[in-house]
Write a structure and sequence with these properties.
alpha/beta
Length: 224
């Protein structure tokens, strides 16, 4: 696969993502946030980090609020990302990338501050759900040991949306056992109805078990 990795000021998992795909035999490359066109690729990745520091400053003051992903939406590259999505091409958002996709309206629900009100950084056990997402029943219920590192990773959804996500098999990853942020229904990763856009809070690019996830993505993209 040719994998375009979007870089925003503050992205700090960009090289993790680049190395992750390269060591798995793919051709990853960076796309700067000021670009207006995404070079030909099979998959776009929005990596983890803190795009623009997750901070929104009041004009001409030092005061700011934390609002992960919101400033990234104003970046020129997001127009190209939206076009890529509209064409039905695969997009993956990890951690901050997940936050950006939700803020952009490309994935449903909301990501809010952790229930503990603290940044959480540790290993978690996650379980792959929704075999139809990747088209491989062998992956169903497979457990992965993946790290998380976020302060705003609590996934929120109304009762109606949660029913819809379940009905459409859009929940592809759940925390198994300990829930690090208080996400509803232990949700760690979701996709859109068309199953072309994926977002997850854990970092598969930092873990050995992430190889299982990349294999699933490979199979999925290969069928597009």
């Amino acid at each position: 696969m040719r994998v375009g990795i979007i870089r925003f000021p503050g992205s700090n998992c960009d090289y993790d993502a680049l190395n992750f795909f390269a060591k798995n035999g793919h051709v990853p490359f960076f796309v700067w946030y000021k670009e207006r066109v995404i070079p030909k690729c099979d998959l776009v990745v929005l990596p983890g980090g803190f795009a623009f520091g997750d901070r929104v400053y009041e004009k001409a003051t030092a005061k700011y609020t934390i609002n992960p992903g919101v400033l990234a939406l104003r970046s020129p590259i997001m127009s190209a990302v939206r076009k890529f999505a509209a064409a039905g091409k695969p997009i993956l958002g990890i951690c901050n990338g997940f936050q950006i996709l939700v803020k952009a309206g490309l994935l449903p629900g909301a990501l809010e501050r952790n229930e503990s009100k603290r940044f959480f950084c540790d290993w978690t056990i996650c379980k792959i759900m929704g075999a139809s997402v990747f088209g491989d029943a062998r992956l169903l219920r497979k457990k992965l040991r993946l790290p998380v590192a976020h302060g705003y990773g609590r996934y929120r959804a109304s009762s109606a949306l949660l029913r819809e996500l379940k009905a459409n098999d859009q929940i592809f990853l759940k925390y198994d056992g300990a829930n690090p942020n208080g996400s509803v229904n232990d949700i760690a990763g979701i996709c859109n109805k068309e199953k072309t856009i994926f977002g997850l809070m854990p970092h598969p690019e930092r873990a050995r078990d992430g190889a299982h996830f990349i294999r699933a993505i490979e199979r999925y993209v290969g069928k597009r």
